[in-house]
Amino acid sequence: MKHDVRAILFDLDGTLADTLADLANATNWALAQLGCLTHPTDSYRLRVGDGARQLCARALPPDKQGLVDDVLQLMRQHYDQHCFDMTKLYTGIPELISVLTERRYSLAVLSNKPDDFTKRMIAHYFKPSPFSVVRGQLPNVSLKPDPTAALQIAQELGIPPAHWLYLGDTNTDMRTARGAGMRAVGVLWGFRDREELLESGAEHILATPQEVSALL
Description:
42% of the residues are buried. The chain is globular and about 55 Å long. It is built from nine helices and eight strands. The model has no long low-confidence stretch (mean pLDDT 96). It has helices at residues 20-33, 52-59, 68-82, 93-102, 115-125, 148-157, 171-180, 194-199, 210-215, and strands spanning 7-10, 17-18, 88-89, 106-114, 133-137, 164-168, 183-187, 204-206. Helix 1 crosses helix 3 and helix 2 packs across helix 3. Strands 5-4-1-6-7-8 form a six-stranded parallel β-sheet, with helices on both faces. The protein is an alpha/beta fold.
């Protein structure tokens, strides 16, 4: 592997940054405004990862699905004002990114978070940004696990998918990597567990960011 990996594609939520509390708080606030039951923060580990609309749908009971768009609008309103309240980069991520940059790997970010939030978050935590491409949810581009966006990033940087590692923490990420022909690397410091990552096609499982360097 050491000789043919040229680029690393990172998921954002649960991979670069621990965003769970702020996402949960924003969704719970939106639910409360509409008189719906809220949920413990930790339960959102199984709700995030597939875009904001899916997050809101998963937070609503089956008989309240007609409120999805209302919850989504309120959730985004709250998140816009509070997305940095509790969010932080995972321990070891700044050092990992520094090492990869020094080694001249091409780095990119792909998230199912809306594109404006994705770019805003990377700009906030990485100054200057070490990422050649930062991309979130865009109109007319399918969300992960559809591999379209990952393949577009590879094409933009002129690096074939086989030369990419894809780091992510959910089955959505592993399926995206496999669909794009990238090497799927599951991380255990995020929102999901080893079993889910292996079942969805992870080729490697890493417990800490420091293990990425060893893998390369």
